[in-house]
Each structure stands twice: as structure tokens, then as C-alpha cells.
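hey can u run this one w/ adenosine-5'-triphosphate bound, need the C-alpha cells asap thx
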Amino acid sequence: MFKKIVAHTKEYGFIFPSSEIYDGLAATYDYGPNGVLLKNNIREYWWKSMVQMHENIVGIDAAIFMHPKTWKASGHVDAFNDPLIDNKDSKKRYRADVLVEDYIAKIEGKIQKEVKKGIKRFGDQFDIDKFLKESPRVLKYKEQIADLRERLGQLMTDQNWEGLRQFILELDIADPVSGSRNWTEVRQFNLMFSTQLGNIAGEDGKLYLRPETAQGIFVNFLNVLKSTRQKLPFGIAQTGKAFRNEIVARQFIFRMREFEQMEMQYFVKPGEEMKWFEYWKATRLEWHKALGTPEHKLRYHDHDNLAHYANAAVDIEFEFPFGFKELEGIHSRTDYDLKQHQSLSGKKLQYFDQETKENYTPYVVETSIGLDRMFLSVLTNAYTEEIVPNADGKDSERLVMKIPAALAPVKCAVLPLLKNKPELTTKAKALFDDLKLVTQCQYDEKDAIGRRYRRQDAIGTPFCITIDFDTLEDNTATIRDRDTLEQVRLPLEELSTYIQRKTAMSGLLKSIQEDK
Ligand code: ATP
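ok here u go:
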């Protein structure tokens, strides 16, 4: 299934391997004509749900290059490391912690297998919740998982790389490619890309490509506070590129070396951070659910090993075609970052509380999501192969991208029934000229109407408008709904409002508002 999705995204202009004519560059991808539209729409959904929908959240767009001290202060120079391990036989490189995580995922898979067996045997009578709580075999697996997680967490927190290697040997983990257990030492590897500033040689001119967008927000805390006169709690949102020299960058756009983040840091009064952590945890899940993502494909995963700056952290995981993986992180970052920047810059990064007449360093709760991972989750949910009745009544297979209408790259297509009838094409082009003033649409007159429908299905266009001979008589056209295949006839002058109403971002935003 995953392979099919990857091939589809290339064929239909969503994603291309980067610099493909030179055989591509590992773990970098380019967004094609439909991809860029979808990506912009996802970003807009995020941005509006944060900045437009909250009076106390404002946006910024900070530079990718930042003063090198930023990364010293944030801890990235000293501690932004992943443990890497090589297999001596296959010469493949892995993240040592991920090898253990994959081992744990296999045990989780065993639990799922037990559940499936039960369903097969007992059908509707099978009480899954009870089984998960009481089956001795499941409880044994759960205990094993908790123990392994705890041990991995401790080793990672202690950066105990030799211990991690021993752990891999103890679990008898084999190279997934070759099956060999001939492992090297575990070494730590800094994930930041560095470059050189102008003509300044050596360490003095060393610059980093930002590995996260968050620091651009922290260093602008005072500027934003002074220029907007916000009061706590308030948030600063930002979207933009981040760069990480990932050890193993596989799984398509899930893990790239250049990717885009959408982050929001919420500054709160110390002591109130857990309340806001819970608030953002729930709010962010609603954001995902508003897109119609099936609930069973989303889950929370509490962090076992907290980052050096955090006092609570949870991931929202999505079931990608290769299993449940992190889509978004919600972290309570304490006052670590502001205090660090205060100490290295010598500038006071505090908030004056009018009520208590006190100065203090706010605490921060952040939500951080990868735009590319979100893109992949939207594609995964959308990709549908189904059997539908043709116009002639016979069944046929179709491939349709059921992308939520507000995110769809193209909102509607205008199709004259026949290409060589100028009365139809003139009318259709005039309508297209009208619609493109208000929304992203396409005009297509090539091939039989059925094939044109399929082309639009393949890129997820929610509505196709057909101009036929009746249109010339009564100025109406048929609108075909991508998902239900229902066709309605509407006057031409109503089409623009109809399409806008059905595809508006405000519909999505309203559904999150109503859930609150
Ligand atoms: P992982 O454990 O998968 O490496 P992380 O915990 O290091 O991710 P964060 O530092 O919390 O990730 O970054 C926030 C978000 O940025 C992640 O939830 C993810 O969606 C996205 N992200 C992080 N690294 C990458 C990457 N290499 N490629 C694409 N997206 C990424």
C-alpha cells in the first residue's frame, strides 16, 4: 500500500525525489504542482487555527540563520545527539534507540495479533477492552513493554551508549536487512548541519542551519511582548524550514534532512503549565480529528525519556502505513530556554505581572508538528481504491484521493461535455474565468468525460462541473460530488458561492470551535 501511495504522489505531481535527474539526494524531496497547493492548505489550516482563532496568539517568521550562541544556549551544540550503530556485515547504519523501539513495536504487534484471533473466534461477543485488561498473555506482553521502555528511557537520559549497545545484544536484536548481530560500538552523532559565515574562518564563523523553529520564537520573546503588549498566557506561532542531519532517513517524507515545522510556544505563569499542557494536548487532538481522521488511527504516547528541557511531554501518534509513529509533540519546556538565553545574552527575558507586581520568567508549553509528516498523514488517509458504478451501470474500480475539501489542492474542475463544440467550450471557459477569481480550479476538455472525472479523483478535486447542452438552454450545470458521486444541477450564477461554501477553511475551523 505504501509503495502505491509513493508512486501515486509522483505520478500526479504531489511529491518528486529532489534533483531526480542526478539520481536524487537521499532524504530530500520536492513538492510538485498539486503537492505545493496541498501543503499550503495544511499550513493555512494550522496557522488560522492558531493565529486567527486565538486573540492571544501571534505569528512571526524568523530567519533560518541565528546567532551561533542560540544553539549553545538551547543545548543543541552539546546535547542534540542521536546514538548511531553500524552493522559490520551489512554496513548499514541505524539509530540504536530505534532498533530497540522497533523491537518493542513487534511485541505490541503480538498483542494486536491476539486481539485479532479473539475477534475471529468469538466475533461480536468478543470484549476487546476486557481482554486487553485481563488476558494473562497480554498482561505479560504489557509488562515486558513497560520494562523495556523504562530501561531504554534511562539509558537515553543518561546518554549511556555502552549500556545501550549491551541492551541491543541482550535483546538479541538482528540487523533487519541482513539478520546479522555483528554490531559496532554506539557512537553519538550531532544532528545539526553547519556552514561558514562569509570569510571568517574556523569556529568564529561557524553557523548552523536551525534544527527547530522554536528558538526563533524564544529569542524574539521580548520583541513580541513589547510590540504587541500581550499578557500571559499568550502564544507565538511560526512555520518554517528546519534541518537535521538524520542518521537514518527512510520512509519517504516521514523523516527528511530538510523539513518544515509548525510550532507554537505558549508562555504561561509558572505553576500553570500542567493545566495548559493538558489544554493543548486535547486541543491539538481535536485539530486532527476535525479532518475526519479515524479516531483509531490517532493515539497519545507519553515520553519515557524527557528531553533535558522538559517536565512533561506527549506525542500524538498517527498510524502511518509503517505503523504508529510520532506526528506531533506537545512539550512542557519549563523556563529552561528563556533562562538559558537570558544567561548567555545577558538580557533580562522576563515578564512583569501587573497583578502581582512581580517579575518572573514565564514557563512554556509548546506544540510542534512536522508539516511534511502531516502531509503524509493526509495522503495516507485520503488514498482510496474502490468499486463504483459507471454511467453505463457496470462496476469499475477507481482511485480517489478523499482529501478534506478545505485542504484539496484543486477545489473544482470545469469540464465542457465535448471539446469540439465551441458553444460548450466558450461557456465553460467563461465560468472558469469567473471561478478562478475566488478559488483554485482547473479547466479540462481533453478525453471522454469519465476519464476526466478519474483524473480529478486522482488529485482529490471535490467538485466537477460539467457544461452540457442543457446549459445552453437553461444556464444550469451539473456538479458531481467526488465522494458520493451524486450529481446536482444548479444555476451557473450560484456555482461560485456553492463551491466556496463547500470547500471553505472556515468550515473546518468552525468544527474545532464547536468541539470546545
Ligand atoms: P523523531 O523522534 O521522529 O526523530 P523528534 O521527537 O526528534 O522526532 P521533535 O524534535 O519533537 O521531533 O520535532 C517536532 C516535530 O517535527 C515532530 O513531531 C515531527 O512531526 C517533525 N519532525 C522532526 N524531525 C523530522 C524529520 N527529520 N523529518 C520530518 N519531520 C520531522
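Residues 44 and 484 are 26 Å apart (CA to CA). anyway lmk if its weird
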